[in-house]
Amino acid sequence: MYNFDENKIKFIENTTKKNLKQRIINDVQFKLKEFDENLKLKRERLNQQMLNEEMLLKNEIENNQKTYYEKLFEIKEFQAFKILTEQEAIRKLLVKEKMEQLQRDNCEENRIIEHKILSKEIAKCNKELMKRNLKKWQINKELQENFDKLFNEFKDDRKHVKFNDYDREKLLYKLY
């Protein structure tokens, strides 16, 4: 009843395979692009956070310089009023400086710990990026294998035509 030409049927099958393959390629490329954008945003946030930490450290250094001048003023006050003897004043100042030094050391240790945490986060992002690149490579490898299978089927269907590597590369270029 129906008399279809075999060439038309094969043409329809081939175009359906190509359309399906193109849709798969487009979906994979879209997901990879989306993943890339998310990683870039995360990396930018981490970089911004590190810049903020650097600014905080600079501000802290400036504040420490201000406290130095305030201490000098306090020393002059001690000398001007002569409320305490010089030894008592020096002892109190040393105790105060040691306490402040301990506080600064704690702040610096906290900053170092935070910097290490940020470094670990960046390392995690880099690891995720490497995993993504590996997945991308695997997907490309699968696509290449699928293309090779389709090309071999195509060649088998057309045994009367000779194909070489140049034809294969040309067809591959047209698909991508």
UniProtKB/TrEMBL annotation:
Entry keywords, A to Z: Coiled coil
Coiled-coil portions: 32-63
Full protein name: Meiosis-specific nuclear structural protein 1
Source species taxonomy: Eukaryota, Metazoa, Ecdysozoa, Arthropoda, Hexapoda
